[in-house]
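Morning - heme C inputs below, output right after.
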Amino acid sequence: MRYTKTLRANLLKGAARVLTVAAFLGAQGLSAQSIWEGGDVENGQGLFNANCASCHLVTADVLAAPGLAGIKDRWGSSDELLVQWIQNPQGAAATGDGYIKSLVDRYVGTYGWMSAQAVSADDVRDIMAYVQNPPDVAVDATADNGCINIDELPVEESNDSSTLWFLTLLVMFLLIAMSASGVNRALTNTLRERDGQAQLEDLGYLQRLRGWAWNNLVFVSIIGVFVVAFGVVKGYQGLMGIGVYEGYLPEQPVKFIHSVHVCENEVDCKYCHHSAYESKHAGIPSTNVCMNCHKAVKKGKRYGEVEIAKIYAAIGFDPETGTYVDGQGNNGYAAPQASFAGEPIKWNKVHNLPDHVYFSHQQHVVVGGLQCQNCHGDVETWSAGRIASVDHINTLVDKYPGLIELSKPTLTMGWCIECHNKASIDLASSEYYEEMHNRMKDDVRGNEELRRILEDDKITVKELGGWECSKCHY
Ligand code: HEC
Ligand code: HEC
Ligand code: HEC
Ligand code: HEC
Ligand code: HEC
Ligand code: HEC
């Protein structure tokens, strides 16, 4: 940057001679100030994220390239070559430098060539300052790096206690009624005995109960009305609400932690759940996807090698030799040979709509432009998958602008249709909608309903048919 500025100034002067001198001085400046000193860490972080982070992580060999930590020990003396490598890897390899040759031998077979980067020597200095001082990506697992891990969501109070109370009271009441009838009978018998009458016949409990109910008709009817009303309310709650899904968090076979991947290591949701953008399902990544990184990342800060070893066991990989059990030594991208009899990791499904409901991720994420967080909450702070509650999602409005606040429990029908009533469609987002909108505007005369819909120049999902039973039900 600085260099181009001088260049432009010189050009303005129009003196070719001065330009040569300036270029010479620029080059001098570079070799005088080592690439390892005086860089701006903060600027470097921005440059790294913009240019390098799509392939490199600082601390680990992941994604699509080796980690850059400790880079100075490997390149220390060859500043200019390093800059050249970054600006043009294949050109730098053509110099025949020994280290670069080893680099190419080691990585190009696996990752392919690094692409040429449009960064200046000054930019590289800043980037190197940053990668040598990585912002402790949770060196201490308990340190607060902003990637908190909510291991336990507050469990929703179960409102089933009301049922329990009701049943307890009912049983107590029956016991009292029965013993009362017993006492009553004993008293009557005593009276009859005194009066010299025959004893009451010895009836079964049920018969006695019937007799008692018959004698206390009003009281029994009141109880009956209560029981029926209670059943109706419970049934209604069962249909509408349901809220039973919220907070659901089953055990998983591997202690996969979303926050370690999404927040600490900035892996996008798309990397693992890419089908959310292409199909109905978001899907769970196959073990091969884990191996893209875990072929190299063999240890975690929390569980050491234990949990990652389960991935190896599932796919048949020997971390000692870095080869698959089938002996083919594949590079982690291709599926292992079928000859290995490992069990795929069996993740437990967390979200599960009933079979009669149709839901498509692509429709919501791509066409509707919704953020995952609008329905799943702040996944980057999660450990394993769980069902977020609306209350949790509503706390995220500041963190994720554009989030639609809702009130009905997630995954219930009330939740879907509440959002369809609130969410409006960005008509400019698609030529189809835009054209339809314009055509509707022409048709609007005399059509009261259309006029009302178009009044606010906003069309909700509901107005487009998002409340029609058949859209969501097979
Ligand atoms: C398209 C992916 C990609 C991007 C973007 C990328 N690199 Fe690379 N980089 C690689 C790969 C792959 C290698 C390993 C060598 C090879 O296969 O070409 C590598 C190797 C390197 C190395 C040598 C590593 C070592 O251990 O000596 C350095 C240094 C480097 N990259 C720096 C950068 C910098 C700085 C940026 C950003 C300005 C960057 N790379 C952007 C893919 C990339
Ligand atoms: C894009 C790269 C990448 C992918 C893909 C990936 N991981 Fe990881 N994983 C990492 C990194 C980086 C760490 C951090 C290691 C550490 O704790 O420093 C990690 C850590 C872990 C840990 C250990 C956590 C700990 O602290 O002990 C487990 C378990 C794990 N991953 C499981 C998985 C599973 C299962 C998959 C596939 C569904 C997967 N990972 C996919 C990069 C990845
Ligand atoms: C409009 C709400 C909504 C949005 C936005 C949304 N999801 Fe979902 N997601 C759901 C529902 C509803 C289910 C349950 C689907 C089922 O059981 O058929 C689900 C299920 C899932 C599952 C379980 C696997 C599956 O396919 O059933 C994953 C993983 C997932 N979502 C990830 C994502 C990711 C990643 C994004 C963002 C790219 C996202 N979701 C955006 C509502 C949403
Ligand atoms: C490194 C891979 C990886 C990344 C990145 C990732 N996930 Fe996941 N996700 C998984 C795995 C593995 C599971 C299954 C285990 C579990 O439920 O925790 C899962 C489960 C889920 C579930 C629950 C699925 C179910 O069974 O209903 C949701 C929802 C989800 N992820 C959303 C997201 C969102 C949103 C993001 C981005 C913020 C994201 N994930 C990023 C690997 C990943
Ligand atoms: C956070 C808001 C939100 C939630 C929650 C939500 N949707 Fe949607 N839904 C949308 C938006 C926005 C669109 C419009 C996408 C478009 O432009 O076609 C849409 C469109 C649809 C469509 C297509 C409608 C049509 O007219 O073609 C169906 C079907 C659908 N949603 C089903 C569901 C189901 C089932 C649920 C609940 C499990 C659900 N949605 C929950 C926002 C939501
Ligand atoms: C936006 C999507 C959407 C629309 C529109 C919709 N439903 Fe639903 N419906 C759902 C979802 C999701 C569930 C599942 C809720 C649950 O499991 O708690 C459901 C559940 C139901 C159930 C309960 C069945 C059960 O499993 O308990 C009935 C009955 C029902 N819907 C009828 C209708 C009727 C009638 C209409 C039209 C007036 C309609 N639905 C429109 C999404 C929708």
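Note: Residues 239, 242, 353-354, 357, 412-413, 416-417, 420, 466-469, 471-473 surround heme C (ligand 6) (CB under 6 Å).

O.
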